[in-house]
């Protein structure tokens, strides 16, 4: 894919394939297409303006929320502007009612007419019914917008596909023709055109899911769908758009024994081990902004009624939810403005005798 100019690379990404076998490990290289990386300012964050050309406000809000995950690792700030500012927008999003997802690679979006979309997020109702799939697709397409290529198109020791099985598979599942499959799946990028080449990452958000039946050779015999930024995704984007050196790193371990770390953008799960127990999480907020903290029901767990209280470092209550305010079942939701500092989030069952497992996720909204 690196052989052609970036503007020729709208990258179709409708990866949603069933898998019967998973594997991981091995070596290869991947990274970002150097020619499409945004120029970093000498100081401060790279500011990328984003405009929605259409779409419902509620879906736009989801996109804003999930895209923030990249900001946690990179010195990048997405500024979501009103549509009247489309001429100033680096990323221009259209949301058609048909299932299709693609984005220009990095600065490729600046090489087309500013009135045209650079990213397509075609959320259909069935996709919107799966919150983690929505998140996966937003993270993946914003990865492209930052200049990241597909992980499976690594140039060095990557996946080799069986032909004609791979063409048959993508025709059957995506209606992609051979040319599209070659561009989006088979053709490796050129190593000399990549920045920050790194080991093949089976957990990358930039990887498609492939069943073993179409993989001929490679470090893995199949790949899975990944729903969050992997450790290596974070390291890669942090290296490409490094944070200013004055910004302190979060602590490796929580200061208080028994307090679980809750990192912005990283879901955490826990269980209530004994009736009436409360689970405390330590939350380090490094940047001021509006934050949303929400519990969720982990896969396979029973839906329970959770309540949450957020305390500041003086143990004063900042916010709480006892009403199950989340739009998802009986989960708890807190939305509030937070200043930088250390906070403690306490989660417990609504019923004093209640038990169960829950997940919790804190995100910066703006
Ligand atoms: Zn893609």
Summarize this structure briefly.
The chain is of the alpha+beta class.
Q: What order do the helices and strands come in, and which of them pair?
A:
Elements: E1 29-33, E2 46-52, H1 57-73, E3 76-81, E4 91-94, E5 101-103, E6 119-121, H2 125-128, H3 131-145, E7 160-161, H4 165-174, H5 178-186, E8 194-199, E9 215-217, H6 231-240, E10 260-262, E11 268-272, E12 278-285, E13 289-296, E14 306-311, E15 317-321, E16 333-338, E17 341-349, E18 356-364
Parallel strand pairs: 2-3, 2-4, 4-6, 10-12
Antiparallel strand pairs: 1-8, 5-6, 7-9, 11-18, 12-17, 13-16, 13-18, 14-15, 14-17
Helix pairs in contact: 1-3
Bound molecules: zinc ion.
Written account of the structure:
The protein is α+β, with helices and mostly antiparallel strands. The chain folds into 2 domains: 235 residues, Collagenase (Catalytic Domain) (3-Layer(aba) Sandwich); 105 residues, Jelly Rolls. 18% of the residues lie in helices and 27% in strands. The protein is built from 6 helices and 18 strands. The strands form 5 sheets. The chain has a 5-stranded mixed sheet, covered by helices on one side. Helix 1 crosses helix 3. The protein is globular. The two termini are 34 Å apart. The site of zinc ion has 5 residues, from helix 3.
